[in-house]
């Protein structure tokens, strides 16, 4: 609520607080802009006639800042000022209330615009979640589809036994279908699409299974991916999500490390009292100045032409998935050259006892 008259602020504050709104008073345009920088309000009630910075100028500043651009502004104006009503709308306000206020009218307008803003924000969030999810599903289908393509390629060239290749194609296609089923299923049930079900599970079988699924792709790169199972900790997590993350890390290692080199996936109980999995390669690693950006969406560190089908999403998605399982994912340089991407997950035994 912005007004240079303290008495107006007091009346409106009392009225809105009685209706359970939280009111932050400001006596000038400068003050409200400062408040808005600290915390984005659900609505601004703005007096138009103020010394120094008037309401119209405040509107312009609020609209110009992406954080406050869609905050509804209701302006307060004297009944005789028809001109400023039009001007207020032209500056982006959504409604106005004439002074002296009628309490019910002010409350009704505030309520309507706060609810509209909440509905809009919710829709925007849902749209964003769905867009994110579409990207994730598309991204996750790339690994099994690449395996299928390579198996078909080997079949055509008669390089390996047809039965082995058929089994490979079947496994990868099943993998694709189960992804799609699980997302469509959750979509149909309108469940929170990003929520993962957390259960206690053994880590080693997930690591081994994922490493095995890269047999063909590593062969194509003349590389070897091996599992180094030091321990088999029981963690709290989601097997599908852990598998996605490992697939992203292993496919990166295969992509960015040189042909003929080795990739090691290690599974152990870390020093931190959490389970730790790391994927180590003998590639170029990541220069220190680029490490900060690695986990941001669409960040790629080399020219587009160098690597096919890369979108710069894998690490960002992986980090989000690990964080959702209360874990942590990070990068380190490998001794004697190469990259190590590691993640830790909470041990099942360490779960907080139920109250
Ligand atoms: N093991 C690695 N060694 C060196 N650089 C890496 C390694 N893993 C990732 N990077 C760098 O980090 C960038 C981001 O990786 P990320 O997996 O997020 O995207 P991407 O591999 O480019 O595309 P995709 O969306 O298909 O995974 C890569 O483009 C690459 O430059
Ligand atoms: Mg990647």
From TrEMBL:
Alphabetical list of Gene3D superfamilies matching this protein? 1.10.287.130, 3.40.50.2300, Histidine kinase-like ATPase, C-terminal domain
The record, for Pfam families, names: HATPase_c, HisKA, Response_reg
Would you say which domain of life the source belongs to? Bacteria
Q: Would I find Zinc among this entry's keywords? A: no
Q: Which residues carry this modification: 4-aspartylphosphate?
A: 47
Q: Phosphoprotein: present as a keyword of the record?
A: yes
Q: Name the keywords, alphabetized.
A: Phosphoprotein
Catalyses:
ATP + protein L-histidine = ADP + protein N-phospho-L-histidine
Q: Boundaries of each Response regulatory domain copy?
A: 1-114
| E.C. no | 2.7.13.3
The record places domain Histidine kinase at 136-349
Q: What Gene Ontology molecular-function terms does this entry list?
A: phosphorelay sensor kinase activity
Q: Which PROSITE patterns match?
A: HIS_KIN, RESPONSE_REGULATORY
Full protein name? histidine kinase
- Source species: Hydrocarboniphaga effusa AP103
């Amino acid at each position: 609520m912005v007004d240079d008259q303290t008495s107006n602020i007091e009346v409106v504050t009392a009225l809105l607080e009685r209706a359970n709104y939280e009111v932050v008073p400001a006596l000038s345009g400068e003050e409200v802009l400062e408040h808005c920088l600290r915390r984005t309000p659900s609505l601004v009630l703005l007096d138009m006639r103020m010394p120094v910075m008037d309401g119209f100028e405040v509107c312009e500043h609020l609209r110009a800042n992406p954080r406050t651009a869609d905050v509804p502004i209701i302006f307060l104006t004297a009944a005789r000022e028809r001109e400023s009503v039009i001007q207020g709308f032209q500056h982006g306000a959504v409604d106005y209330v004439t002074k002296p206020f009628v309490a019910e009218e002010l409350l009704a307008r505030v309520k309507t615009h706060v609810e509209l803003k909440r509905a809009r924000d919710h829709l925007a969030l849902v749209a964003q979640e769905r867009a994110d999810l579409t990207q994730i599903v598309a991204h996750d289908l790339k690994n099994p589809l690449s395996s299928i393509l390579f198996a078909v390629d080997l079949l055509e060239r008669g390089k390996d036994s047809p039965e082995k290749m058929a089994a490979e194609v079947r496994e990868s296609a099943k993998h694709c279908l189960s992804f799609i089923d699980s997302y469509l299923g959750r979509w149909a049930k309108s469940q929170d699409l990003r929520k993962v079900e957390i259960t206690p599970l053994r880590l080693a079988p997930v690591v081994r299974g994922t490493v095995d699924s890269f047999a063909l792709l590593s062969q194509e790169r003349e590389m070897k991916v091996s599992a180094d199972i030091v321990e088999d900790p029981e963690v709290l997590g989601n097997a599908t999500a852990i598998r996605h993350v490992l697939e992203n890390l292993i496919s990166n290692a295969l992509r960015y490390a040189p042909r003929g080199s080795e990739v090691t996936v290690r599974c152990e109980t870390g020093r931190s009292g959490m389970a730790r999995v790391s994927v180590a390669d003998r590639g170029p690693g990541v220069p220190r100045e680029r490490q900060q950006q690695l986990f941001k969406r669409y960040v790629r560190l080399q020219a587009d032409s160098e690597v096919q089908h890369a979108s710069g999403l894998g690490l960002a998605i992986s980090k989000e998935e690990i964080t959702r399982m209360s874990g942590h994912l990070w990068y380190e340089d490998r001794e004697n050259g190469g990259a190590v991407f590691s993640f830790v997950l909470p041990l099942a035994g360490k779960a907080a006892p139920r109250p």
